[in-house]
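Notes from the pairing session

We agreed to fold both candidates in a single pass and log them together. This is the raw record for the first candidate, unedited. Please don't reformat it; downstream parsing expects exactly this layout.

Candidate A
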Amino acid sequence: MGIKLQLLDKENKIYLLDDDNFDFPSLDMMDDDLVALGGDFHPQRLINAYKNGLFPWFIDELGYIHWYSPQKRMVLKPDEFRLTKSLKRVIKNKGFKIKSNQNFEAVIKNCATIKRKDEDSSWIDDNFIKAYSYLYEIGYAYSIECYLDNELVGGLYGVMIDDIFCGESMFSKVSNASKVVFYHLCDQAKQNGIRLIDCQVYNEHLKSLGAYEITRDEYFRYLKGSL
């Protein structure tokens, strides 16, 4: 059976997801960055979303989840991380300790509550925390944590789809903690055969670490294993 989704906006091709199945629009059905509305956070729906190049960004005031597949996708190949001399010194001398998957819930909750420049509130609400914590429990979501003097001062989390790590969010409570965490993500990615880190949308901080934009078509070729 083919995908049957209600088209809400014919001009921009925005679809209403069917509550009875976990289908998502295919690449040839997409137009703008916002692709679909609705559905829920059933784990199979979330996994299908990432497998089809989409991710949920926020829930609107009517309770609809907004699903995105950016026309320009921010990505980074693990071996192209930009390791500066100053960051090398920080990694060696600052005293940060890195752990993986030891405190996922604390990481996502910090990502939800940390104050960010030019943001009044976070899109990571209790629905996101519950959904991604369950993905962690079943082995699809992962976290990397940065500790200083036994205190969690930085971290990131994301979803693993085959050999692509789909980064969701990161936080930092002290200078350079997020850079150190991202460095260790790339290092672990190289050790475990991860080809690409999906950073989703453009960010100056990630650009400074070596990330860059590719087209949506190119990202889908990575997803399908043809690049």
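Candidate B (folded immediately after A)
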Amino acid sequence: MNEQAAAETLDAILGGALRLYQPRRGYRFSVEAVLLGRFAAARAGERVLDLGAGCGVVALTLARLGAPREVVALEFQPALGAMIERNAALNGLSRVRAVCADLRSRHALGAAPGSFDLVVANPPFRARQSGRESPEPGRRAARAESAATLADFVAAAARWTRHGGRVAMVFAAARSAELVSALRAARLEPKRIRFVHPAADARASTVLVEARKGGGVEVAVEPPLVMYRAPGVFSVEARALLGRP
């Protein structure tokens, strides 16, 4: 086994519809990323931007399940940016391309503001200095606000989304009020909200929010998504969304 192969794994998601390389240690994508790809659902002909794309799981899910014109995966870490390119090639998704840059930069994409129909993001769930941080730099950057904050992600989404375009994010349910407040302050009006619960009798752990740039003040709160019907057993809907048998 060569050094590169030893440092990564090749995993299948969506019932085998996608295969992705990801680091064996450090940042590894979570179920929330797949749920975001399903929730956002890119439309035919849309130009899509994935902020903080990691190994590209959300970008590739959107490209595989929909028919967007282009999906740009913006990622700060060069090793992950290279992995996105490899994953796109592995899955034959040439309309997905990686850009390695800091999402906080106004010039990160070399494109005009308002260039995208849909912007998606999975911002770090934990606020700065809120609990134990991972010793792995990649995992720390993905799960906690050690670099870009929620405000940075929202500002970038507002910058790159066209007027009338959509922004979809997955975030910690405990910080849902913070997310909604930040979106509205950036004139990204929430239009769909769905809470994700580990079990039917458990508090929500995650929230999915779709906002529209310049939209009106009316939101649809969708039925909750319950992930497990028994310990270790996915619900029927969760199995369908994740492509599990």
